[in-house]
Structures are given as C-alpha cells and as structure tokens.
Amino acid sequence: MIKVEHLSKTLGEQKVLDDISFQVASGEIVAFLGPSGTGKTVLLKHLIGLLKPDCGSVMIDGKDITQISQKKQLEMRKDFGYLFQEGALYDFMNVFENIAFPLREHSSLSEEQICQRVREVLEMVDLHDVETKIPSELSGGMKKRVGLARAIVLGAKVLLCDEPTSGLDPIRSYDISNLIRQVVKKIGATTVITSHDVENSLRIADRIAILNEGHIEVMGTREDLLSCPRPFVKEFLKPSSVAL
Ligand SMILES: Nc1ncnc2c1ncn2[C@@H]1O[C@H](COP(=O)(O)OP(=O)(O)O)[C@@H](O)[C@H]1O
Ligand SMILES: [Mg+2]
Q: Which class in CATH covers the domain with range 1-79+157-168+189-244?
C-alpha cells in the first residue's frame, strides 16, 4: 500500500507539490491526470525516492521511504517497476538483453532461468519474435510494451507508469492502456499512472486524481469525477465527457 501525507516540494521558484495526501490500496490502479507541468512526474519520482520532499511522508507498505538509508532505498527499489515516459530502453541492447538486464543486476538466476523469465514477460505483454531486435527497429507501441515487460520482470509489487500513452496514436493508446490493466491485475501490482490521456485513464484506473497547481482537485472513481461540480474538473473532463 502507498500512503502519502502532506507532501510538499518546491523546485526553483515554484511550489510544484503543495500539501498532497492520498492512498493507493494494494493491487489498486490510480491515475494522476493534469495539464502538463502540474507535477505528475515530480510526484512519481517522490514515490520511488528519486526526489526527496521538503516536508511530508511517503509510506510504502508501512515504511517511510523518505527516512530510510540510501542502501535500504536501493534494496527497496527492486520491488518497484518504473515505466519511463520515453521508454528509456538501452539503444545498444536488443529486446532480450533490455529485459534480462534487471535480472542480471538483481537476481542470481541461471541463464536458462533468465531466458524463461524473459519469455514469460514477453508473453504477458503480447510480443512475439522480437527478442533479437534493437529498440530502433521497434514501433512506439512495441517500445512501450518492452518497457512494461522490463518494468515487471523482477515481479514489481509497485508499478509506476509515467505517461504510458504519450506519443502513441489513439488505437495504440487504447491497446497499451488495456494491456497495463490486464498485466497489473494479473500480477497484483499496486499501480500509479500519470497521464494527460483522460479517456483511457478513466477507463482503466480504479480511481483517478486530478492535479492542479500542486494540489489534488478531486480523487475518486470515474463516476465521482464525472459528477464532480468543481469548475476546473468539469472543464478538464469536458472534451471526453461527450464520448463517454
Ligand atoms: N529538477 C527540476 N528543477 C526545477 N524545476 C523542475 C524540475 N523538475 C521539474 N520541474 C518543474 O516542475 C514542474 C512540474 O514538472 P513535471 O512533474 O515534469 O510536470 P508534468 O509531469 O505534470 O508535466 C514544471 O514546472 C517543471 O518545470
Ligand atoms: Mg511528466
């Protein structure tokens, strides 16, 4: 479970996060929506300890990760999968080696076990015959799938996905969103997604939060959001409400 309390962070002159509190239950998918520059990525980085808050706490399964030693933090990160916005695959490694990398770094599996695990996660993200391709030979959607496979290969208890549909056309965005839901519900990962993709987020997340100028405007189920009377929320959801 993730429990964030009174999290604040100023970067440069800007108070990017201003007294944010929320919880994500075990196995739940929560999406953070908001216009670009509202602090979605900054928030995700706090959840994995890449940024330290000015004040507030980030509890992961009862441990405040802002208070533990760097060594413990690195240890804990093995339980985290992080799907980066740009995919962040290693250009010089093929798909197999990209996905095998965390296993080689953080497990003592044999070569045969590594092969088996890589095949297993490729199957989960519905990719076939791509093991020897290098990232530049893959489409945008396939890169995201490889990124997802790599993020879950160590068995992510917590999965963080930064803008998983950015740069994709509507059909690929729909597909990768469905795939994320399918995969995380299968492995039971506690999942936080950031996105500006309103329709797909409302469709696949269990709960959704809308960030605005450093605070949470609203957090709840799709129905809660669609019936929220706050002007900012109504305006933010407007283009998609017709299609829902
Ligand atoms: N390392 C940094 N130093 C200074 N400002 C930063 C840094 N990282 C992010 N910011 C600022 O914080 C704000 C939120 O950024 P970000 O979380 O990337 O937005 P989002 O992901 O919602 O588009 C932006 O105004 C950005 O310029
Ligand atoms: Mg971002």
A: alpha beta
How is the chain split into domains, by residue range? 1-79+157-168+189-244, 86-155
Q: Looking at the whole model, is its pTM more than 0.70?
A: yes
Amino acid sitting at position 36: S
Cα 223 to Cα 202: distance, rounded to the nearest angstrom: 9
Q: How far is the CA of 165 from the centre of ligand 2 (A)?
A: 12
Condensed to tens digits (0 to 9), the pLDDT of residues 66-79 reads 998 889 888 888 89
Q: How far is the CA of 85 from the centre of ligand 2 (A)?
A: 7
Measured between alpha carbons, how far apart are the two ends of the chain, in Å?
Answer: 30
In the structure, which protein residues have their CB atom closer than 6 angstroms to any atom of ligand 1?
11-12, 14, 16, 34, 36-42
Distance CA 231, CA 233 (A): 5
Q: Is the pLDDT of residue 46 over 80?
A: yes
Nearest CA to 188 among 63, 21, 1?
1
